[in-house]
Design a protein that fits this description.
heterodimer; A: 354 residues; alpha+beta; Uridine Diphospho-n-acetylenolpyruvylglucosamine Reductase, domain 3; Alpha-Beta Plaits; five-stranded antiparallel sheet; four-stranded antiparallel sheet; 10 helices; globular; B: 489 residues; seven-stranded antiparallel sheet; 17 helices
Chain lengths: 354, 489
């Protein structure tokens, strides 16, 4: 597929939908179609709006059209020894930058390097009235106006169609290795919490049920010193292990009708949730296979000031995200109207009421 | 114009039902300290100032204001540099100064729960014993409060590596204009729904009042070492910055000063800066002991090949503090050169630096106003300091026009009018340059989602379309629009 700008035809299409009050569902690579609520809304294919528009390695910025494949971006960055700092999950070879930003999903390095939204610098979008508008830009520091760019991140396209996204990129660490150790999960959690309080070059930490895995990234001397301090067995292929976790190709993720994602304070006792767990993000993100109901899990997550998402599921009628209540819910409804007054952009993809 | 449905005396009586007498200020001698923030060129005597101590009191104040249509301007330490806390006509100044407690330090989760009136530096001081700190370090960090930092999305010299306020907070509690308490963010690293935490950060008090903040804490690096490099040409210094980053090194701090700024700083604090140089770079590297050793060697090589005429490395904490002292004192140092100075805050793509500095130098001659430049070189945030004398008739107006031109140039080269100080009252006109009417309309729609009656910090941050239209017309005829609605002292 060739690089092409489809902004104007998209704008006209959405403007017409606005006038006719016809809802649309955006789809590019479709690699994350499973994520969120499933809807019957007619699909608008946005995959052909693609191409890298600007990349300045020494300014650490990249701007690309939303339909640009993640693999293409990662390759261009790798050629300059740089990377997407938030390690976005692809979930398929057709994953796009727009999908990564709209889903707001971050990889294993999230607690140490940052989330998708942390690296979004600017966006060009089409709102629900069919207007092309632009916020933020290609500079790291920008506090002019409300931070609409980060608001778009993780909004699942319900506030606007992403056209272009500017992101901050980072150099690849000089070295990255992974150490593993057989350890009880509770003991592993305590160690991960303790390590997080020390100046160590840890860039990912997880426990797969049997072993704890720690990734060390940085200058080679720093990695060597930390390796000596922490001990454990060095994996032959560090990158493959973390990719299998990020892409949910690790054996933990096979053979389960439902997969729950828990986002909780890292110190939350492992026993708070019963079922089979894979602990990521140093304890702050937990993948769970269980027979318990979503509402039970969400109540428990709320009780520790966290939240629970039904991440993968087979029943199409489910609500999947932690419910919003009271004034917080009202603010969401108000914001949705502010960007999409006729409720035509990916309606009910996030919550059943907007 | 005012729609306020209550007399001030009656409002005071209502407030006295739940606030102590000392928490309500209305006599001129008491309200005078609140007439301006760090941008002291703009002043306006407040109508009423309240200093609540509890969330419940803030909620009651907000309900009263909402009911009677009284504008509310939240205020922290008042160190802001864009007039964000400037009082408006018949408005209530809501000071959060009494919310000054650190409520909890959660070591396992590396977060601290603090009230909005806690000073930025006080957080790092409180957790130092645990080897942790709060990373964003605006130069006003001794005085500025965390609530103000969130409202402005404050940065600091270390934000290239450690991010802005938005990257270093996890949860906030806000009070809406109708007095509702809402928790935004959460105990985990993300929250369900829209990213309201990001939207609130930097919203300059236009969407809600912040009453609690959960900040992230980081382990203190084992070692931090700073280097100074001198250059005969500004372009070489800019090139050196690009070369450092191209080598995969992200310094903790990377600051540039031009010759006038170097001279001013040296005369003020005697940091040992080379006063003949066209520019100096301060490059701080931090991390593990081994990492810093490795990177210092690399950076030295890069600086040499980029044309540095002199390189110095601080070998102990005292030398490190001395090298930073000049940079950290740059604003007051420049302040000694003239009765007043005006600090700009644009951000530009770094490759545009030579072009932008050239244009600033040309305008400096044209307006006959000296300029010193301090630059967060790593992230492109430029602080030109324009020297002027407010007592010379017409000089403030000339300064504002000059400043406005600089900001418009920042937008023209692909940057922004404000990197970290906020729009406030000061840059409201330049917002018309940066955003078109569709974008401004979208901002107003966001505002309406939170505050349909436009009572929170009215007239700041986002200009009305009417204002921009008038400004455009004025531009054609006169080339500038001063702030006629502002009193000047």
């Amino acid at each position: 597929m060739t690089d092409k700008d489809h902004s104007k035809s998209f704008r006209d299409y959405i403007h017409l939908a606005y006038e006719e009050r016809k809802p649309l569902q955006f789809k590019a690579g479709g690699s994350k179609s499973f994520y969120g609520r499933q809807t019957e809304t007619p699909i608008m294919d946005v995959s052909h709006h693609r191409g890298i528009l600007n990349y300045e390695p020494t300014e650490l910025i990249l701007t690309a059209r939303a339909g640009t494949p993640l693999t293409e971006i990662e390759q261009v960055l790798a050629d300059q020894n740089q990377m997407l700092p938030f390690e976005p999950p692809h979930f398929g070879d057709k994953a796009t930058l727009g999908g990564a930003i709209a889903s707001g999903l971050s990889g294993p390095t999230r607690p140490y390097t940052g989330a998708v939204r942390d690296f979004v610098l600017g966006v060009r979008i089409i709102n629900g009235k069919g207007e092309i508008i632009q916020f933020g830009g290609e500079v790291m520091k920008n506090v002019a106006g409300y931070d609409v760019s980060r608001l778009m991140t993780g909004a699942l396209g319900t506030l606007g169609l992403l056209l272009e996204i500017s992101i901050k990129v980072l150099p690849k660490p000089a070295q990255a290795i992974t150490l593993s150790r057989e350890l009880d999960v509770n003991e592993a959690q305590q160690q991960m919490l303790a390590y997080a309080q020390q100046a160590l070059p840890i860039s990912a930490a997880c426990h797969d049920g049997q072993k704890m895995f720690l990734r060390l990234s940085g200058a080679s001397l720093a990695v060597a010193a930390a390796k000596k301090q922490l001990g454990g067995v060095e994996l032959d292929d560090s990158a493959t292990f973390w990719r299998s976790l990020r892409e949910q190709q690790h054996k933990f993720f096979s053979n389960s009708p439902s997969l729950y994602r828990l986002s909780v304070p890292a110190s939350t006792p492992i026993t708070t949730f019963s079922g089979e767990q894979f602990i990521d993000w140093g304890g702050a993100q937990r993948w769970l296979k269980t027979d318990q109901s979503l509402s039970t899990l969400q109540d428990k997550a709320a009780s520790v000031n966290g939240h629970c998402t039904l991440f993968r599921h087979q029943n199409e009628e489910y609500d999947v995200f932690q419910p919003l209540n009271g004034t917080l819910k009202q603010l969401h409804l108000n914001l949705k109207l502010a960007f999409d007054p006729h409720n035509i952009l990916n309606p009910t993809r996030m919550y059943s009421d907007f | 114009m005012s729609k306020i449905s209550i007399r001030r005396d009656d409002l005071i009586k209502q407030l006295q039902k739940f606030l102590s007498r000392s928490a309500i200020l209305y006599e001129e001698e008491d309200t005078r300290p609140y007439e301006c923030d760090g941008l002291s060129a703009y002043r306006h005597l407040p109508w009423l100032v309240v200093l609540p101590e509890t969330i419940d009191q803030v909620q009651k104040i907000m309900r009263l204001c909402h009911q009677h249509h009284i504008p509310v301007i939240a205020r922290g330490a008042g160190t802001g540099l864009s007039g964000g806390a400037l009082p408006a006509d018949e408005s209530l100044i809501l000071s959060l100064a009494k919310f000054n407690q650190i409520l909890d330090v959660d070591l396992p989760n590396r977060v601290a729960t603090v009230q909005p009136g806690v000073r930025n530096l006080a957080i790092s001081e409180a957790v130092k014993q645990h080897g942790l700190y709060y990373a964003p370090d605006p130069s006003s960090q001794i005085a500025c409060t965390i609530g103000g930092n969130v409202a402005e999305n404050s940065g600091g010299v270390h934000c290239l590596k450690y991010g802005l306020t938005v990257h270093n907070i996890q949860q906030i509690k806000i009070i809406t204009i109708d007095g509702e308490l809402v928790t935004v963010g959460g105990g985990g690293l993300d929250a369900p729904g829209f990213d309201l935490l990001a939207l609130m950060t930097g919203s300059e008090g236009l969407l809600s009042v912040i009453v609690e903040v959960v900040v992230k804490l980081l382990p203190m690096p084992q070692r931090a070492q700073v280097m100074l490099a001198a250059f005969d040409r500004v372009e070489d210094a800019g090139e050196a910055v690009a070369n450092i980053i191209a080598q995969g090194i992200i310094p903790a701090g990377l600051e540039m000063m031009d010759n006038p700024a170097i001279r001013a700083a040296e005369a003020f604090v005697h940091a040992g800066y080379p006063i003949e140089s066209a520019a100096i770079l301060l490059c701080e590297l931090d991390g593990t002991n081994e990492e810093v050793s490795e990177q210092i060697t690399l950076v030295k090589e890069i600086l040499n090949t980029s044309g540095a005429t002199e390189i110095r490395t601080a070998n102990n904490d005292q030398e490190r503090a001395q090298l930073w002292q000049g940079r950290k004192s740059a604003f007051p140092a420049v302040g000694r050169l003239a009765p007043d100075y005006y600090c700009m805050d644009g951000t530009i793509p770094r490759k545009q630096l030579p072009h932008v500095l050239q244009r600033i130098a040309e305008w400096s001659k044209k307006y006959n106003l000296p300029v010193a430049n301090v630059f967060h070189a790593g992230d492109g945030n430029l602080h030109p300091l324009i020297l002027y004398d407010a007592n010379t008739p017409g000089e403030l107006e000339r300064t504002e026009e000059f400043g406005g031109k600089i900001l418009e140039l920042c937008v023209e080269v692909g940057g922004t009018i404000t990197g970290e100080h906020g729009v406030g009252m000061e840059k409201i006109n330049q917002m018309c340059t940066q955003f078109n009417s569709l974008e401004l309309t979208q901002f107003h729609a966001v505002k309406e989602a939170f505050d349909p009656d436009k009572l929170l910090n009215p007239g700041k941050a986002i200009p009305t379309l009417h204002r921009c239209a008038e400004l455009g017309a004025m531009h054609v005829h006169h080339g500038k629009l001063p702030h006629p609605e502002l009193e000047r002292f």
